[in-house]
Please model this.
Amino acid sequence: MCGRFAAINLEDGDETARFLKGEAESWTEGGFGFRAGGDVFPGDTAPVMVLSGDRIGALPMKWGFPGFPDRDKPDRKPRPLINARSETAGRLPTWRGPLKSGRCLVPVAGFYEWSHAGGRRAQKWSFVATDGGRLFLAGLFRDNPDTYKGQVPRLFAIVTAAADASMEDVHDRMPVCVPRPSLDSWLGADYERVLGENGAPFAKLPA
Model:
């Protein structure tokens, strides 16, 4: 699972930050509320990397696909769908199309999860790249049906997998972290291979 992540500060000066800053300079509408840094919550806008012709570009997208009404609470606004399970995405109508033609990468400084061991107050953990660099989360995107209201044109969700040893003591799910050598593969035709390989390693730190 991934319910919050840390955005990359575009002024940090590293390669990824410079790339995103350059892309953001061409965004219209001020990036539709995009904030360059800080924590990103469902419903927020973040920079997302996509294949544009023969190059990788970045676009502002809102986190969360349209959710489904709760039959028991029809008056409650549906929660956005922020995560797609890698094991079932190819079979479910919500994710099947985006998995084939809407794959993207969500560059982050890290992501968060909370543990609840022994009934104690939840402990917040930050997961960051072990090499001190950036993490690139596998994502899916689609058009936003509310674009006519002036909202950001595209929505994204993060692909998750069963937790490995780096995460399983905190949560049973984790985002798919695409290794740098496989970024092109995830955006291109070889995306299924990426889901079967080991993800980029990350470390757990108290947040």
The chain has a mean pLDDT of 92. The longest helix spans residues 15-24. The first strand starts at residue 5 and ends at 6. Residues 1 and 174 are 5 Å apart (CA to CA).
